[in-house]
Automatic annotation (TrEMBL), chains A, B:
Boundaries of every Bacterial bifunctional deaminase-reductase C-terminal domain copy: 133-177
Name of the protein this chain belongs to: Dihydrofolate reductase family protein
Top-level taxon: Bacteria
UniProt-listed PANTHER family: BIFUNCTIONAL DEAMINASE-REDUCTASE DOMAIN PROTEIN (PTHR38011:SF12), DIHYDROFOLATE REDUCTASE FAMILY PROTEIN (AFU_ORTHOLOGUE AFUA_8G06820) (PTHR38011)
Native organism taxonomy: Bacteria, Bacillati, Actinomycetota, Actinomycetes, Streptosporangiales
Length: 203, 203
C-alpha cells in the first residue's frame, strides 16, 4: 500500500444524527443536504447552473477542502444514483469508480473518470497517483467501510445533519472491524444546518 | 399532556459515531464511557465508592446537568442491565421505570424508584411531578424513541463518542416518526474523549 506521505485518504459524507447517509428508499436528501442551500454565500461549482448557497463557515470549509483534495474514489451505487454527475462532478476532480464493470456509455472523452474492477485497494492506489500529493476523498457507505476495514483510511469527515432518518444506508455499512476507534474531532465547524466534525482513524 | 412550562423532557445518552448506545451483545461500554474516566477532575457520585474522573469541561457540564434535572425516566432494560444501580443511581434522583411489571425485590424502602406499567406518557407525567419544575431526563433506546414518537420530547442530548461500534442498540431504536427534524446543536462541548451536543426537537 506504500507509505502515507503523499496525501491522506479521507472518507467524507453528510450523515444524519442516527448514522445514515441516505434514508429509507433513498429518501432524506432534502434534510441531509439542507446546508448546501441554507446560507447566503454563493459557491459556484464546476457544473453549469449549479450554485450552492451556504453559510459563511461552510463555504469557507468547502473551498478549503476543494483545494486540498486531488482525487475521489466513489462506489458504483453513488455513481449510478447521480447519473455520473452528467460527466461533471461539482468538485471537478479525477474520479475512480469502484465497479464490477464499466457502465454503458462510459468512459467519455474529456471526462476524468476511471472505472476500477480490482477493488478499493487498487482504486485508492490509482486515486493517489491522480491526486498528485493532495488528499484522496472517499464517499461513502460500503466504499468507506471497505477502506476502513483494509486499513486505508486516515481520516473520517462527517457533516452531521440535525435529523433522525430512522433507517436507510449507514455511513459505514456493515462494518466488520468494529469497534473502530477514532481520535477527535480535531475540527468542529458549526453551521445553522450542519455540524462538520473531523476525526483521525486510530491505528 | 399539559403545558411545557414546568421543565423540559430531555433524552440523554452517550452514543457512538454510528448511532449506537451499546454495541453488539451489550459491548462497547468501555469505548462509549471512556469520558467518565478520562480526565483529572474527580466527580463524586451518590454511589459509595463511585467516583468519576473527567475532563474539566465534562465535569462542569455534568454538575450543571445534575442541578437542572429533577427526575429520570428509564426503561426496564437499562434498569435490569445496571441491577437497578443497587438502589443508588449515581445522580440520586427519583426514577420512574417503565415496565410491564414490578421486578422481584422492588420497590425498596428509602429508594426513590417507582415502576410505571402505563407506558411512557404516564411515566413522563409522573416524573414531571417528581421533578418539581426541573427537567425530566429520559434514557434511552426504546424509551427515548417512544417519547419522541408521542411528542413528549423537548430536547435530545448526545454525548458523541469517537468510535464506530458497527451494530447494537440505536439511540432511537426503530423510530416510526422519521424523518424527525431537530434544531441545533445549540451547545457543543468538546472533551478529548467525547463531544457533547444538545439539540431541540423541532415541532
Amino acid at each position: 500500500m506504500g507509505e502515507r506521505t503523499a496525501g491522506k485518504v479521507i472518507s467524507m459524507a453528510t450523515m444524519s444524527l442516527d448514522g445514515y447517509i441516505s434514508g429509507p428508499g433513498e429518501s432524506g436528501f432534502d434534510r441531509l443536504f439542507a446546508w448546501y442551500d441554507g446560507g447566503e454565500v454563493e459557491v459556484d461549482t464546476a457544473r453549469p447552473g449549479m450554485t450552492w448557497r451556504m453559510s459563511p463557515q461552510s463555504a469557507r470549509l468547502l473551498l478549503s477542502d476543494l483545494a486540498s483534495v486531488g482525487a475521489m474514489v466513489v462506489g458504483r451505487r453513488l455513481f449510478d444514483l447521480t447519473g455520473g454527475w452528467d460527466g461533471r462532478h461539482p468538485f471537478e476532480r479525477p474520479i475512480v469508480v469502484v465497479s464490477h464493470g464499466v457502465p454503458d456509455g462510459w468512459p467519455r472523452p474529456g471526462v476524468p473518470y476511471e472505472f476500477c474492477r480490482d477493488g478499493v485497494g487498487a482504486a485508492v492506489e490509482r486515486a493517489r497517483a491522480l491526486a498528485r500529493g493532495r488528499h484522496v476523498g472517499v464517499t461513502a457507505g460500503s466504499i468507506a467501510r471497505q477502506c476502513l476495514e483494509a486499513g486505508l483510511l486516515d481520516e473520517v469527515w462527517i457533516s452531521l445533519a440535525p435529523v433522525l432518518l430512522g433507517g436507510g444506508t449507514p455511513y459505514f455499512d456493515g462494518l466488520a472491524v468494529a469497534p473502530a476507534d477514532l481520535e477527535g474531532p480535531y475540527l468542529v465547524v458549526q453551521d445553522p444546518h450542519v455540524t462538520h466534525l473531523r476525526y483521525r482513524v486510530r491505528r
